[in-house]
Amino acid sequence: MILTVTLNPALDLTYTVDALVPHTTHRVRSVAERAGGKGLNVARVLHAAGEPVLATGLLGGPTGAAVQTLAAAAGLPTAFVPIAAETRRTVSIVDGTDATGLWEPGPLVSADEWAGFVDRYADLLTVARVVTLSGSLPAGLPGDAYATLIRLARDRGVPAVLDTSGEPLRHGVAAGPDLIKPNADELAALLGPRPGVAAIRGLLETGCRAVVVSRGHRGLLAVTGAGSWQAAPPAAVTGNPTGAGDACVAALARGLRDRTPWPELLADAVALSAAAVAAPVAGAVDAEHYRAIRPHISVTPNDEGAPRDVQSHR
To answer: Under DSSP, is residue 151 helix (H, G, I), strand (E, B) or coil?
Structure first.
């Protein structure tokens, strides 16, 4: 079973418009409402692929109850820990070319609620083969919250995949996760502008075993102890990129569980990410697009000097 952790979940609303024009009124063509947050998107992708998965995290208030109801309606197995404060909402405005996100701040979590979650998480690790730790931290949690969860997973022999940014990422890297998946901007915030492969490889010396950088339409760059590779789709995909990174994490977690060789694992992650862009809402993938694109993903070894940086150039 793959355990997904979402400490700051959301009621995810997706509005589809013909074109997004700032400072004007828009007629929304469709509205989708889902149990949201990065870890829940990971869980939904895995569940749709027939993989055993369990979603955990923190939920509170009527919005949290709505998230729980929507997750159950989607067939997702969950083990959320209740909190007193209200779960947030997120809004994605999609115009067929890209997406604009509006994220509310998360709830305030007490020290006792965090301690209760850590205890529950430790219990769930006994049945997990991989754990994914995704997204931002709500107010009240320490900056090293993910580091705490990574160390618990390591002590129990469960591989951990970390997908976050800022201070939680910095602390998390120091705890030695099996894999981190920053995007180009998140990596630059961690290592400085335009980091090259040599700088990324320095993260491996801190105890992190692999770094997979998402670079938008340019695909993925992976730096591991066994080597480094670039993986790219045959062509850019237009649509809603909101859940592409979460689909990538789902593929990486599945590959770690199965010990899939890196080139094959990266090809699968790029294909699943592209299929998520082609789907209308975050947490979904276009299965037909995935099957069509999967054989055409290019994966090449990456020498120390190329590419010169990992910027997405979006």
So the answer is: helix
